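Q: I'm writing a short methods note and want an example of a predicted protein-small molecule complex. Could you take the sequence and the SMILES for flavin mononucleotide and return the bound structure as tokens? Please keep the output block clean; save any remarks for afterwards.
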Amino acid sequence: MNLQGKNILLGITGGIAAYKIPELVRLLKKAGANVRVVMTHAAQQFVTPLTMQSLSGEPVRTELMDPEQESTMGHIELARWADVILIAPATANFLSQMTHGIANDLLTTLCLAADSEIIVAPAMNHVMWRHPATQVNVETLKGFGVQFEGPVPGDLACGETGQGRMQEPEELFVALQHYFSQSILSGVNVVITAGPTYEAIDPVRFIGNRSSGKMGFALAEAFVRAGANVSLVAGPVSLDTPQGVKRYDVESAEQMSNQVSSLLSGCDLFAACAAVADYRVVDSAQQKIKKQDREMSLQLIPNEDILASVAGEGNPPFTLGFAAETENLLEYAQAKLERKKLDVIAANLVGAEEGGFGAEKNALTVVWNEGKVSLPMQNKKKLARELVDIVARLYLQKKNNTENYRLIQGLK
Ligand SMILES: Cc1cc2nc3c(=O)[nH]c(=O)nc-3n(C[C@H](O)[C@H](O)[C@H](O)COP(=O)(O)O)c2cc1C
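A: Understood, no commentary inside the block.
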């Protein structure tokens, strides 16, 4: 994969393997990547900022409390600039800081502020690596969606042998190439709905639901990462728009439906992640309804089923639906897949102790006509990436079959 023009933020921490990083920078620059380097204080004992500056062609940043750089909140800018952050080598100390959200220097602070992927390449003595504290940190970080490259077994700088060697610069270079090669949906137009809808009762009250929008937003981010052009139709949520996503805010199911319709022409893949209200209030009041000493009832009428109507179009896009159920998960998901004529459905249990609405984590069972796969409980961002990987493959499979079919038709 071409690294030309990719923005790579390289964090160097205080491990002996730091001496290998100049070679990695050389390889990245040769491939046309933009490289900015941030070093911890300890890292500067192993390799100099001057070396890194000369090779990267950019000033190296080492301090958080830098009045000049921070006049424009440099650490946030740097975090946003990066397409990917690679920490190599990553010390045991750094992994521990990151696990606990410690932000006491530039590198730890910007990792906490980053919404791009973080890849770490640990390097340490094998006993340090095996220590339960390190292993717990590694598992926690994986749960946060941090990607690990190594460490690998071999001879260590301390003279011992074991698992703790940093991957070689060439291997880290290939890992970065691999990271960017995931653009399998390049040029594909994706429309995603996310969050709840609010159905007005009067100007101040509404019927809503507990959807936080986190899964839909994570999905939007994952689709962008896979190279797609993403339009996100969001119900009322308080979430930041992921980088590269075109966002349309709506409130009610009707507004969501209208917005989706306006985006459908040219849409290749539709992902319905929003928890759209099934019903709306008949003639919601124009003025606030006053409290009265008697029972009151609301008359509800069904909303349009956005997903079913998109999937039922003459030439529908590839459709991904979601099923949030409190029981009989697979059975209901399978039924919904068939009833709404979807290509694939991602089902999750809500109301359970872990996962579901509002939670940071979730687990999904992905079902399509010819198969199903379970994705275990994990951070929603990581889960979204795994889901997009499956959906992209199914989408491309269907598209290629269709194109082959069209080709054969054309030859006749
Ligand atoms: C010569 C030397 C080599 C070191 N090598 C490593 C190493 O490979 N991995 C590691 O986790 N720590 C190593 N350390 C310990 C770290 O430098 C130390 O934990 C430091 O606080 C890390 O700071 P940082 O994570 O902010 O860069 C080494 C220390 C010394 C003195």
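A: Remarks, as requested: DSSP finds 13 helices and 19 strands in the chain. Residues 13-17, 40, 42-43, 91-94, 123-124, 128 surround flavin mononucleotide (CB under 6 Å).
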